[in-house]
Amino acid sequence: MKIHLSHPSRNIEMAGPKRVGDVLTELHLIPEGYLIIRGEDLLTEDERLEDSDTIEIRPVISGG
Amino acid sequence: MKCRKCPAQAVLKLPRHNTAFCSTHLTDFVRGQVERAIKSQKMFHPNDRILVAVSGGKDSLALWEILLKLGYQADALYVDQGIGTYSQTSREKVERFTELVAKPCGATLTIHHVEEEEGANIPDLANLIHRPTCSACGTVKRYQFNRATIQGGYDVMATGHNLDDEAARLLGNVLHWQEEYLQKQSPMLPASMEGFAKKVKPLYRLTEREIAAYAIVNRIDYIVEECPMSKGAKMLVYKDVLNRLEAESPGTKHTFYFQFLKKQAKAQPTQGSMTQTDHATLKPCTSCSQPTSTGICSYCKMVARAKTATS
Ligand SMILES: [Zn+2]
Ligand SMILES: [Zn+2]
């Protein structure tokens, strides 16, 4: 699957299928700091992602 | 995962409330928490005029949208700092939101251009006074938002500070035992004296993640990019630490900040002592008459230096 990350903006690839929560764990990201978006939908951690999916892992924490 | 309130698919799990919501019920939850914040802290009344400080980020745009959806009269002020493409993009987001959401509700946006009004952009102002960019930015924003609230005849100024902002700031203040700052860390600061606007933080009951989720499901287009000047800011470290604690035991951030507020309320049952301190230590700035403890305020000092440097 294709994954878009921010801060800095970049794209990576990961093999699917995989649960959203496992993708975050593999990238060492804490769920509390991110939201996972596919198309226009927000996904919870138990959602299954296919190899053909494109998702965005959006950080929710800002400096302010 | 299903929504706890209806058979629809959940879009967000909220471990600290041991629940999960679909987009409709997430929206209800977020607006309900804001309504509760406004009422419990006596932030403003249904007929009050509110000025929202918007930046183009998720918090301030979500706040503006929520207040309008709840039926409040809320206009907004955006301060254009002149920080390259970051300022340009954030301004475009604010302007687009105004056209799509605010204008149809009868609300207006005012834009303050730092370069035109203060004589130099934020990075240049910071250089002139030998201070970090964030400090110059804070000085200008605090000053301009306060001034616009008073001069525009608004009853109150609202900012998008959320639970993570407040918990991180509290952690920073406690780590350094900055007790003088603790006194002013409240979701509602009254207009302690003439020249100071009443300031409120209606999102203080909500985490950044809940607000970002609200913005996404309600199609609020905000700037995800961070200000290029705030890199490595300590706040991000504090927030990360708090989120690690939150992952281990959900509700930590809420308990940390809300127990502090409880203790604070017990220690000073009225806001009287703060008003007294302000009256004793603050006098009108000799140049602009906004209250200050230093004769001429830090904003006027900065602008004066910018004027001499560029003339
Ligand atoms: Zn529902
Ligand atoms: Zn002044």
Task: Tell me what the structure shows.
The complex is a heterodimer of chains A (64) and B (311). Chain A has 64 residues and is mainly beta. Chain A has one helix at residues 20-26, and strands at 2-5, 10-13, 18-19, 34-38, 41-43, 48-49, 54-59. Chain A has one domain (2-59): Ubiquitin-like (UB roll), CATH 3.10.20. A five-stranded mixed β-sheet of chain A has the order 2-1-7-4-5, with no helix packed on it. In chain A, a hairpin with a 4-residue loop joins β1 (2-5) and β2. The longest helix of chain A is centred in the middle third of the chain and has 7 residues, at 20-26. The N and C termini of chain A lie far apart (32 Å). Chain B has a single domain (36-282), classed as Rossmann fold. Helix content of chain B is 52%, strand content 12%. Chain B contains 13 helices and ten strands. The radius of gyration of chain B is 20 Å and the shape is globular. One zinc ion (ZN) binds next to α1 of chain B.
Concise summary:
The complex is a heterodimer of chains A (64) and B (311). Chain A has 64 residues and is mostly beta strands.
H/I helix tally of chain A: 1
Give the neighbour order of strands across the main sheet of chain A.
2-1-7-4-5
Counted beta strands of chain A:
7
The radius of gyration over CA of chain B amounts to 20 Å
What would you report as the Rg of chain A, rounded to the nearest angstrom? 11 Å
* The CATH homologous superfamily of chain A: Beta-grasp domain
- What number of structural domains do the residues of chain A give? 1
Q: What is the CATH topology classification name of chain B?
A: Rossmann fold
Please indicate the count of domains of chain B. 1
Tell me which CATH architecture of chain A applies here: Roll
Strand content of chain A: 35-45%
Task: Summarize the amount of helix of chain B as a percent range.
Answer: 40-55%
Q: What is the CATH T-level topology of chain A?
A: Ubiquitin-like (UB roll)
Task: Trace the largest sheet of chain B across and list its strands.
Answer: 5-4-3-6-8-7
Could you name the CATH class of chain A?
Alpha Beta
Give the oligomeric state: heterodimer
What would the average pLDDT of chain A be, to the nearest integer?
Answer: 94
Task: Supply the CATH class of chain B.
Answer: Alpha Beta
Largest interface: A-B, 25 and 37 residues
Distance between the termini of chain A: 32 Å
